[in-house]
Structures are given as C-alpha cells and as structure tokens.
Amino acid sequence: MTTPATPTVPPDAPAGPQQKKKKVFIWAAAIAVVGVAIAVVVWIALKPSGPGVGFVSGNGRIEATEIDIATKLAGRVQAIMVNEGDFVRAGQPLAQMQIDVLDAQRDEARAQSQRAVSAVASAEAQVAARKSDTAAAQSAVAQRESELDAAQRRLTRSKSLSESHTISMEEFDDDRAHAHGAAAAVTAAKAQVAATQAATKASQAQVVGASSGVDATEASVARVEADIQNSRLVSPRDGRVQYRVAQPGEVLPAGGKVLNMVDLGDVYMTFFLPETVVGKVALGSEVHIVLDAASQYVIPAKVSYVSSVAQFTPKTVETASERQKLMFRVKARISPELLQKHVKLVKTGLPGVAWLKLDPQATWPTNLEIKVPE
Fold first, then answer.
1. Mean pLDDT over all residues of the chain?
2. What are the C-alpha distances in Å from 296 to residues 63, 290, 315, 339, 371?
3. Do residues 72 and 372 lie in contact, with contact meaning Cβ atoms separated by under 8 Å?
C-alpha cells in the first residue's frame, strides 16, 4: 500500500490572502504607535510650562476658619433654629437651651435682693433711733451740767455763810452733798451719750452690712440673667452652618458642641513651596487662585502666613537633594470684601492651584489675570 506524497510549497511561492492581511495589520499598528509617540513628544514640547520666571505655583484646597457653637452650661437643647448649609449673620440666634432652673434661680435671687433691701431700711431706721437717743442724752448732759453749776455756786455761798456762822453746818453739808450729786449726774449723762453714740455706730455698721448684702444679691441676679442670656446661642459672626452636632432634646455637658459653622469672611488656600522658593516669599505677595471646579475664574489673594518650620523633617545627614525636599506651608487669604460680594458661591474643600508672583516687576499673563464672577 503506497502513501500519497505531501505537497510542498516552494520558498518563493506567493503568500496567501491571510498572511497578507496579517502583515498589513502589523504595519498599521506600528505606524499608529509611532504617530502617538510623535504626538506625545510634540505635546510635551509645546505644552505651556506656566507664566515663566518670577512665578511659582502650589496645589491646595480652599479652607475657612471653623467655629464651634457650644454651650456654656450643662443642660438640655430646647430648640435649634438653623439647618446645615444655612447662611447666618452675626448676632443671629442659632439654638436655645432650657432655662427652667435658671428662671427659678433668678426668682430666688430677686427675692433675696428684696429682703436685703428691707434689711438696709431697717438698719437705717435703727441708726435714726440711735441718733435720737444720742441727742436726748446730750440734752440731759447739758441739763445736768446746769444743775451742777447751780449746786456749786450754792455750795460756795454756803461755805462763806458757814464760816460767818450765818447758817448751820447741817445746811452747809446738805449743799455740799447736793453739789456732789449734781457732779455724779453729769458723769452719768455723759456716759449715756457715749453709749448712744456707740449704738449709733453699731447701727451704721449694720447698714453697711445690709448694703453689701444688697450688692451681693444684685450680683447674683445679674449672674443668673447672664447665664440665661448665654443659654441663647447666637452666631459670633457672619458665616454658614456646616454641621448640626446635637439635636433638640439632647442633654449636653458644659462646653458641649451644638453646631459647627465656617467664617466666610476668613477664607484662604493653603499650599506648600520648597525651601529654595519660600525664602523669596514676602507677606502680602500677590497670589492668583484657579479652582479646578471653576477654571474660568482667577481669584485674587495675598500671602498672609508663611510657616517658619519645614513640614518635612530632613535626615540627620543633609545632602543637597534632601534639602530640596523641605516644604513650607504658605497661606493665601482671599479679600473679605470680595468674599462678601459672592458669599453664596464660597465653598470649602475645593482643590485648585495657587500661582504666586515672586518678582514684583513681573506681569501676569493673560490666562492668569483676575477674573471673578459678576
């Protein structure tokens, strides 16, 4: 049995249709790859590298000063008047704490104040009575001194008459005893004056003590009223409510957070610059901010803060390349006047690029000139 011979294709035989298609596909793919590579090279070569010399940029996010609205005293949240996202004005009521206990304390303090006022009136009446007693005692002293003077004059005459035997020794002794009694009455009257004066001073001291009690009770009333006023939480400045940390009915400790808000008058972007650049940055330098979410606008700002400490600590042994890794935090603050005009458009957390002009003589390119919403 013979096996049929396998047909062979000569080396120079023409390729089949499939092989031709495969070669065409390979050449097309190679040409496409080369074209893409050329396009990338051209794009990199022609891509704008920024405004040029005298400018530097850094990536950052829009931030604002946050304010926690917290309670001064422990208590229960009675009501919250605002919601998340609401714009609020300085002095606007935001929340109310329950004040039932404080109202009772204020009533008690007012009652004590009235009692202290009555005590002052009573003490002043006592002072007036003591002064009257003193005046009466002083009158008695004058009367007793007058009687003593008359008794002494009578004693002098009686002594002269006794020596001439005109009167008896018994009458002379009576006059002398009467004079001694008048002198003793004067001494007693003066002692009474001293006693009434001491009582007057004591009553005056009671008036001072009662007046101090009035001051103390009035201070207590003012303190409780201040606590009542502080139980009404108000916005310290214009801003927007970010979060409601607590809800009505919750019991919070002293200092417990109720709301979190942002001050829309203090908005800034924080970005980082290398140490080779940050040394040239001066406070007040011009910054133009371009946000990713609104690249058609260029927002003006000024450098308000430059960190004095590097954010990346180098190794113990520093080399030139390691020093290039030192980055310093820079803050560019947006004008409050501009923010006030577009307060409803301000949003924190938006990423963007901050372009900073290092050379005061440099001119901003057209694409970075200030463009703000109308």
1. 80
2. 20, 8, 42, 17, 8
3. no
